[in-house]
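Students often ask why inverse folding is considered easier than folding. One informal answer: many sequences map to the same fold, so there is more than one right answer. In these notes we will look at a single instance of the problem. The structure comes first.
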C-alpha cells in the first residue's frame, strides 16, 4: 500500500459500515524521531483491536485491521511523513491523510469516522501558488504553509516578456529591457515610448494571467498570491480574470526575497484571510440569529440538517457531544458515555453532503457556548 495512492483532500461522507476506525498520530519529518512513528502507530492499532473486541465482538478484527498493519509496514509511508497522519478505515474503505499540522494522538472505534480533527487540519494546510512578477519575467512557486518550491514551468510558458510577445514586442520595450535592471520601473525616452512600454507590460500581464489560470489555478483550485512591487499590483489586478487571485498580496520585490521570507509572507496573508472568513461567518450568524434563521442549539441544528437547511456550520475544535443522530428525522439521542458517537461528526457529514460550509473554530472565537452553531438556508 502506498500513501499517495490512498490520500485525498476530501472527507469520507458516504454511508459507512460500522465499525469505523479512526487513528490520528503526530509524526515527524526527519530522523531519528521519525523512526519511532511506525512503532507508535502499531501501538495505536493494538488499542483499536482492544476496542473492537470490547465494542464489536462479532466483527472480524483481523480483516478490519489488516490495511492498518499494511500501512505500518510500508516504508514509503514512514519515509515521507509530515506533521501528522490520519488513517480512517472500515469495511470496504480506507482513507489516509498526511497532514501538515500537529493533531492529538487518538484512537476511536465507533459507528462512523471521527472527522472533526481532520476538518480543522485540512483547513489549515491548504496549498497555494505564489506568482513572482516584474515587467520582464515571472516565476511560479507552490507552498503549503511549511515548505515552498519553485515550479519548473513548461517550455511554452510565458516566463519572460520576450516569450510572451515575441515579434510583437515593441522596439522601445526591447531597448528598455536591455537597460533596465531587476524590477526597476525607471523609463527612458519620450512619453510615446513610455506609452508603448506600458502597452507591452499590460499585454505581458494578460498573457501571464491567462496562462497561470488555465494551467495551474483552475486545475488545482489553489489560491494565487501575487508577489510584485506595489506599482505593478494595480496593473496586474486590472487585467486579471483569475477568480483565485487573493485580494491581498506581497508588495515588495519578490526576487529580493528568500524562499523562506516569501513563504512567511504568504502564510501571513492566508492566515489573515482565514480569520476574515471566520469573522464574517460569526457576523452572519449574529445577523441570522436575530432574524430567527440560525441557532446555537444542537437539537434544533440537527433537525435543520436533516431537512437540508444548514448552509454554514460552525464547530468548536475541541468540543465533543455524545449522541446519535437520526438522519431522516433529525432526532438526537444524547449520551454521556465516553465511547458514544460524536454528534458533531454526524452533523459535519450531513452538512458536507448537502453542500454546506464547515468552519472549525477555537472556543474563544465561537459565537455560542454550546460548541456548535448553524446558519440556515431558509
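Output (designed amino acids):
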Amino acid at each position: 500500500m502506498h500513501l499517495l495512492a490512498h490520500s485525498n483532500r476530501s472527507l469520507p461522507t458516504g454511508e459507512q459500515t460500522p465499525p469505523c476506525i479512526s487513528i490520528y498520530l503526530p509524526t515527524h519529518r526527519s530522523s531519528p524521531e521519525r523512526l519511532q512513528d511506525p512503532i507508535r502507530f502499531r501501538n495505536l492499532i493494538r488499542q483499536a483491536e482492544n476496542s473492537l473486541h470490547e465494542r464489536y465482538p462479532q466483527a472480524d478484527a483481523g480483516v478490519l485491521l489488516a490495511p492498518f498493519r499494511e500501512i505500518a509496514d510500508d516504508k514509503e509511508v514512514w519515509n515521507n511523513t509530515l506533521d501528522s497522519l490520519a488513517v480512517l478505515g472500515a469495511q470496504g474503505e480506507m482513507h489516509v491523510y498526511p497532514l501538515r499540522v500537529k493533531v492529538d494522538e487518538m484512537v476511536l472505534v465507533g459507528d462512523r469516522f471521527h472527522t472533526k480533527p481532520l476538518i480543522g487540519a485540512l483547513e489549515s494546510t491548504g496549498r497555494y501558488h505564489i506568482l513572482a512578477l516584474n515587467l520582464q519575467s515571472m516565476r511560479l512557486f507552490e507552498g503549503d504553509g511549511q515548505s515552498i518550491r519553485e515550479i519548473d514551468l513548461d517550455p511554452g510558458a510565458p516566463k519572460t516578456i520576450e516569450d510572451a510577445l515575441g515579434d510583437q514586442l515593441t522596439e522601445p520595450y526591447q531597448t528598455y529591457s536591455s537597460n533596465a535592471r531587476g524590477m526597476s520601473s525607471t523609463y527612458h525616452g519620450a512619453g510615446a515610448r513610455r506609452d508603448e512600454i506600458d502597452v507591452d507590460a499590460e499585454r505581458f500581464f494578460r498573457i501571464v494571467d491567462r496562462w497561470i489560470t488555465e494551467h495551474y489555478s483552475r486545475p488545482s483550485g489553489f489560491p494565487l498570491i501575487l508577489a510584485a512591487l506595489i506599482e505593478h499590483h494595480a496593473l496586474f489586478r486590472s487585467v486579471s480574470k483569475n477568480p483565485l487571485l487573493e485580494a491581498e498580496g506581497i508588495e515588495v520585490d519578490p526576487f529580493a526575497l528568500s524562499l523562506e521570507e516569501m513563504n512567511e509572507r504568504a502564510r501571513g496573508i492566508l492566515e489573515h484571510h482565514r480569520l476574515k472568513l471566520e469573522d464574517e461567518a460569526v457576523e452572519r450568524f449574529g445577523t441570522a440569529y436575530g432574524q430567527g434563521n440560525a441557532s446555537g442549539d444542537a437539537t434544533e441544528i440537527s433537525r435543520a440538517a436533516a431537512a437540508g437547511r444548514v448552509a454554514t456550520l460552525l464547530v468548536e475544535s475541541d468540543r465533543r457531544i455524545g449522541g446519535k443522530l437520526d438522519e431522516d428525522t433529525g432526532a438526537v439521542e444524547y449520551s454521556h458515555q465516553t465511547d458514544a458517537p460524536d454528534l458533531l461528526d454526524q452533523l459535519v457529514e450531513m452538512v458536507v453532503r448537502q453542500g454546506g460550509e464547515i468552519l472549525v473554530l477555537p472556543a474563544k472565537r465561537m459565537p455560542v457556548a454550546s460548541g456548535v452553531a448553524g446558519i440556515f438556508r431558509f
